[in-house]
Design a protein that fits this description.
Elements: H1 3-6, H2 11-15, E1 20-26, E2 37-42, E3 48-49, E4 53-59, E5 66-71, E6 78-79, E7 84-88, E8 99-100, E9 114-120, E10 126-132, E11 156-160, H3 170-173, E12 174-178, E13 207-212, E14 217-236, E15 241-258, E16 266-273, E17 276-283
Parallel strand pairs: 7-8
Antiparallel strand pairs: 1-2, 1-11, 2-7, 3-6, 4-5, 4-9, 9-10, 11-12, 13-14, 14-15, 14-16, 16-17
Length: 285
């Protein structure tokens, strides 16, 4: 194993002083993964020498970390404080791309149990690491993020919220959000094309109603003209999936959302049939 990987044992000490972080990743698109990118942000006060940075990617599908790609360049410029550096697979499909890497498709593994690390090229010190799709042993800060990119909609990524926030815990720092390469991270499940919402809901017909109860519970009722597959997904405003229930093939269904612990919070409710999907938002009373 290369010397750079040995430095992962000192991750906690190095990560606590990290000046640059992996800020956002879009690793899964609808159909072909041809618009993937990794965004790095300088969260410090001074310029950072990117020509001494290697981006190392690990596949953990076997349960152990296997390095499958390293991206670096001695030509990379200094990254100024507060600015972003975007590595993409296809610059023609990714805004603000600073380095067009190879290959154009499938640049970043989709998970589960994968990781990406920023490593000092000169001495092998680990600057930052993100484990996604689970916690890849020795390649994670805290716990791997439970936020998952999706191939249901384009324009979805996982990223730090607030922008650049680094608590040394991947699961606490990363959320599902809008794809914003080279710009401030944005969580907006209504306006963005997130898997937690759709910009133009498909008209599935029938009836889809939400009834908030004083107890904090929300009753959801759906009825269609003919039997169809019915599924209900409930997300918090930051994109966390908190309920996913299918009712099989039926013409009528009811779900109960237990929102007692979420009173005053915005929930995004997505109802899906074989004909399409419709999304509604509701504030738990």
């Amino acid at each position: 194993m290369r010397p750079t990987l040995l430095a992962l044992s000192s991750l906690i000490a190095v990560g606590a002083e990290a000046q640059i972080v992996i800020n956002e990743m879009d690793y899964d698109q609808v159909s072909t993964d041809n618009a993937e990118y990794i965004e790095i942000k300088n969260i410090g006060l001074d310029p950072w020498p990117m020509n001494d940075v290697s981006v190392i990617m690990f596949n953990g599908s076997s349960g152990a970390a296997e390095e499958y790609r390293t991206i670096s360049s001695p030509e990379w410029p200094e990254l100024q404080a507060g600015e972003y550096f975007v590595i993409c697979g296809n610059a023609s499909l990714t805004q603000n791309c600073d380095h067009d890497a190879s290959p154009n498709t499938n640049l970043v593994q989709n998970g589960p149990l994968d990781a990406v690390a920023l490593v000092r090229t000169s001495n092998g010190d680990v600057i930052d690491v993100v484990s996604y799709g689970g916690s890849l042993p020795d390649h994670v800060e805290g716990t791997g993020t439970s936020a998952q990119d999706t191939n249901l909609n384009d324009g979805v990524s996982i990223g730090r919220s607030p922008d650049g926030n680094d608590t040394d815990d991947n699961d606490a720092d990363f959320f599902l959000m809008c794809s914003t390469p080279g710009a401030q991270n944005l969580i907006d499940p209504i306006e963005c094309d997130l898997s937690t919402g759709v910009a133009a809901p498909v008209n599935v017909g029938g009836i889809f109603l939400l009834y908030p109860q004083s107890s904090g519970r929300v009753v959801v009722f759906a009825r269609e003209a003919a039997p169809t597959e019915m599924r209900l997904e409930v997300f918090t405003a930051n994109g966390a999936l908190i309920q996913d229930e299918s009712r099989g093939t039926t013409a009528q269904a009811q779900w109960n959302i237990d929102g007692e612990a979420l009173r005053g919070s915005l929930l995004v409710v997505r109802y899906t049939t074989s004909e399409g999907a419709v999304t509604r938002r509701i504030v738990v009373p």
